[in-house]
Write a structure and sequence with these properties.
The protein is an all-alpha fold and 127 residues long. Helices cover 71% and strands 0% of the residues.
């Protein structure tokens, strides 16, 4: 299933926040993305209607199995894209992370997959 850019950015934010804390609240997402809480509520309603987060997101945002799969799909190229920015372009870890997130959320999945293949092939040649 294809997701719009906004949904992808929110799913990425939810995943990053879940990596840090067990409970993800609307206010955390708002701060993380630099958007208003009403904007977060509106997008969470959209994500719930799409079956990506559970309906009861007022206390804590929880991904559904379909939401978890979407996040796995989004992050399927992250490792290689991060490697490209950090190892190939020599960006510091935090900056490489930020650029990799921008890349996987803004570029088409096919482009991410092509970069993934290129990085894997290059690393294989170096080994």
């Amino acid at each position: 299933m294809k997701h719009c850019a906004g949904q992808i950015k929110y799913l990425v934010a939810i995943k990053e926040l879940m990596d840090v804390d067990e409970y993800v609240r609307c206010v955390n997402i708002s701060r993380h993305l630099g958007v208003s809480r009403p904007s977060v509520s509106k997008m969470l309603r959209c994500l719930a209607n799409s079956g990506l987060v559970y309906e009861d997101f007022c206390n804590s945002v929880v991904l559904t199995p379909e939401g978890e799969k979407a996040v796995r799909d989004i992050f399927s190229s992250y490792k290689e894209v991060y490697t490209f920015f950090h190892n190939f372009l020599k960006l510091p870890e935090h900056e490489a992370h930020e650029e990799a997130i921008k890349f996987i959320t803004d570029f088409p999945k096919e482009t991410c997959e092509r970069l993934k293949v290129l990085v894997k092939r290059t690393l294989k040649k170096k080994a």
